[in-house]
Design goal:
Blueprint lengths: L9 E4 L6 E2 L4 H13 L13 H14 L3 H22 L4 E2 L3 H10 L3 E5 L4 H11 L5 E3 L12 H10 L6 E5 L2 H10 L2 E5 L16 E3 L7
Parallel strand pairs: 1-4, 1-6, 4-5, 6-7, 7-8
Antiparallel strand pairs: 2-3
Helix pairs in contact: 1-2, 1-3, 2-3
């Protein structure tokens, strides 16, 4: 196992694209979310470069700033329900990433705790983990935090639950938001620049360790 894990008491993994493949079409999630946001009279043009969750959070801020707190809550509830339905469909037949079981079992053997930190819905995440029998100790989904990655709350929630210092934790993910969340919390970070991704997603947010596949960490 890679030396970056040798003194880790906990390792926090992103889920989709890092441990499992689900085929989620993020562009369709974003399009459906922007369509809903437009129904509340929020200008979606400044939101075009954001992902679905980022667009929801920004729209909620816009509504609250306009004194429309009740509508902001309604928007967030409806948006999350719509995203959950779409994610359930995309995650119906998940596949494990090569090397996932060997790596997680190796971490278990050194008594490291394994956490899943995901921007996905909690129910969808639980179904995926159960279906593939992915071993883990703690799940922190988007339903468990007020601010999602790249905000560090996913990470800090796990560390506080376990009472583990950030420097004894490693955060692993396939997108810059995972690295940024880990760095902001004071953890060591691993970025997985997937072989099917042409441009390095970590070029502006370099991790402590960059690999091309999860199984390289073995």
């Amino acid at each position: 196992m890679h030396a970056i894990f040798h003194h880790a008491q906990a390792v926090l993994f992103d889920l989709d694209g890092t441990l499992v493949e689900t085929g989620i079409d993020f562009s369709r999630l974003r399009a459906a979310t922007l369509q809903l946001i437009a129904e509340y009279g929020v200008d979606t043009l400044p939101l075009q470069d954001l992902d679905a969750l980022g667009a929801v959070e920004k729209a909620v801020e816009v509504l609250r700033s306009a004194g429309r707190a009740e509508e902001s809550t309604d928007l967030r509830t409806r948006a999350f329900a719509r995203l959950q339905a779409m994610e359930m469909a995309y995650c119906a037949a998940p596949r494990p990433v090569p090397g996932v079981y060997d790596l997680l079992n190796a971490l278990k053997e050194q008594n490291a705790r394994i956490g899943i930190i995901t921007r996905n819905d909690r129910r969808v995440s639980l179904n995926t983990l159960e279906q593939l029998q992915i071993p883990y100790d703690l799940l922190v989904s988007r339903d468990d935090v007020e601010k999602v990655k790249p905000h560090p709350q996913h990470v800090t929630v796990a560390l506080e639950r376990w009472e583990i210092a950030p420097e004894r934790c490693v955060v692993v993910g396939d997108y810059w938001m995972d690295v940024e969340a880990g760095r902001a919390a004071g953890c060591c970070t691993v970025g997985i620049w997937r072989l099917d991704v042409p441009i390095n997603p970590f070029r502006n947010h370099p991790p402590d360790l960059l690999v091309r596949e999860l199984r390289e960490l073995l």
